[in-house]
Amino acid sequence: MDKNLAIGIDLGTTNSAIAVWLDGKATLIPNSLGQFLTPSVVSIDEHHHILVGEAAYSRLITKPLQTASAFKRFLGTEKTYPLGETTYTPTELCAMILKSLKSDAEEYLKQPVRDVVISVPAYFNDQQRKEVRQAAELAGLDAVRLINEPTAACLAYSLHETHDRRFLVFDLGGGTFDVTVVEYQDSFIEVRASTGDNRLGGEDFTAALVDAVMAKLNISADSLAPAELSKIVQACETAKKRTSAEVSVALPEPWAQSVCFTTQELLDIWQETLNRLSFPIRQALNDARISPDEIEELIFVGGATRLKEVQQMATRLIGRFGQISLDPDLVVALGAATQAACRLRDEAVEEIVLTDVCPFSLGIASNREGQHGVFSPIIERNTVIPASRVERFYTIHDEQDVVRIAVYQGERVWVAENVLIDEFEVDVNPAAAGSESLDVRFSYDINGLLEVDVTVVSTGKTIQKVIDRTPAGMSDADKLSSRHRLEKLKFHPRDALPNITLMEKLNRLYEEKLAEERHWIEQMILHFSRMLETQDDHKIKTLRDQIESDLKASGL
Ligand code: AMP
C-alpha cells in the first residue's frame, strides 16, 4: 500500500466528495458516474442490497421508507433509521458513504486507500467527532485527522492567496451552519474563532417552503403518504435552486399545478430562518474580538450559500460582498486533501502552517461563593490550539485531605449541564480551608489529546492524567509525538524569553524615568502583566509588538 497518498474527504450532510493531492495540487476524484458530488443518501433495495449516492437519491421519492438522507445531522444522538428489515445508526450510514467514496478512489487511483483526512463541522462535539472516526473505521479507513470544514475551505483558498488577510468563512450546507474567523499571515493560517449552529442549513429553507406550499394548498402533512410528502419536498428543493427572483414550485401528480411566491412572499417565508444566521456571526466576531469592518474577505462555502437571500443577509451583516471563486460544494474536499498533504509534508504546501481552535471550553468543577458544581473554564472556547493554561484552586474544608478533579466540557455555568469527560482524586495535606492550593494545568493539542497536570503547591508534587479523546485513529507513535509537543508548551508565557526581556526593559525604564513618562511606563507594565495572565500567546504578542513600537517611537 502506498502510505504517501494524501486523501481528503468532505462527508457532507447532503453531498460528499473525495479529493487526492497529486502533482502538487488537490484533485477531485469522480465517482463511478463521473460526478464529483456523491449524494449522502443510502437506500436498501428489494434484494437487501445497499445503494449509495445517486441511485439511493432517486429512491427518496419512490421508496422513502427504505431510504435515509441527512443522517449526518443525527450523529451523536440516539436516532436510528429502520430501512427495510434492518435498523441502522447514523454512524453506520455514514460508513456506507465513506466506503463508497473509498472504492471510487481506489478505482481511480488503482491502489488501496486507508489513511484519510475527514472534514467535520467546526461545531461538532466530541461524541459526533468520535462517531465520524468510528464510521471511517467501519468503512476500512483510518481517519488520521479530522479537520473543521471551514478551516479546510480556508486552506483551499489560502493556496491562492498572496497577501495577508482576515477571512470570515460563511459555510451553510444542507444541515449545518459554521462561521469561522481565520487569519492568514506569513503562510500561517490561524483560526481565531469558530461558531455555528448544527441544526441550521439549506434544508430549513426547503422545509419553510414546503410549509408555505401546504398552507397555500390547505393540506396538512398528516394527511399525506410519505411518498406524497417526498414529492412536495423534492418539488420545493428544485424550486429553491431557481435562477429568477420569484419561486415557482411545480407539483407533480396528484396535484399537477404550480404554486408561485413573489420575492417579498419568499422573504417572509424565509425571514425566521435568515434571522437565525446572525447569532453565530455575532458570536464568532465577539469571540475573535474584532468588528465586522476588520473582516477583509467573506468566503461562501456550502451549497445553500447559492441562495441570493442568504448572500444578501451575510453581506448586510458583514458589510462586504462575499466571494465564491472556488466551487462552494467542492472547496472543503479540496482543503481536506490539502491538509492531508500538509501532514505528509508535500513540498508545495510545506510553507503553510495551520492552527486551529478548541471549539468548546474545557474546565473543572469548583465551588464559588458557597455554591457547589460551578464550572471553572481553564481552556476557553476558541482558544488557539495547541494550548496550555494553568489556574489555581484552593481547598474548601478544614482538614480536607483529598480534592476531586472533575474535568468538563461545555459552556454552562453549572457543571451538571456540561459534559463530564473524566474525574480523579488528588491527595493534599490536611490544613485549614483555603490554605492548601492546587495548580491545575490543561494542555490540549490539535489531535484532541488533553493532558491534565495537577500540582499541589505546598509540596510541588504533580499528578498527570492524559485524556485521549480520540479512541480510534491515533497510533501510539502519534500520541507520543503529540505529548512531546505538549511538553514544550508547559510554561507560563511570563517565563517566555521575549516577554521576560520586555518586562525587564519596562522595569528598567520605570526606575530611570520620572513624572509623566514614569506613569506612562507604569501603565504599560500593568497592561502587559494583565495580558500575560490571559496566557493567550496571540494577544500577548500583539501587545508586546505594540509596546515595543511605542517605545521605539518615543526614542526609548
Ligand atoms: P452541502 O451540504 O454543502 O452539499 O449543501 C447542500 C445544500 O445546498 C442543500 O440544502 C441544497 O438545497 C442547497 N443548494 C444547492 N444548490 C443550491 C442552489 N443553486 N440554490 C440554493 N440552494 C442550493
Automatic annotation (TrEMBL):
Enumerate the Pfam families for this protein: HSP70 (PF00012)
Question: Example GO molecular function term?
Answer: ATP-dependent protein folding chaperone
Question: Which keywords fit this entry according to its UniProt record?
Answer: ATP-binding, Nucleotide-binding
Q: Which InterPro entries match?
A: ATPase_NBD, Heat_shock_70_CS, HSP70_peptide-bd_sf, Hsp_70_fam
Q: Which domain of life is it from?
A: Bacteria
Q: Which family does it belong to?
A: Belongs to the heat shock protein 70 family.
Name the chain's protein: Chaperone protein HscC
Gene, per the UniProt record: hscC
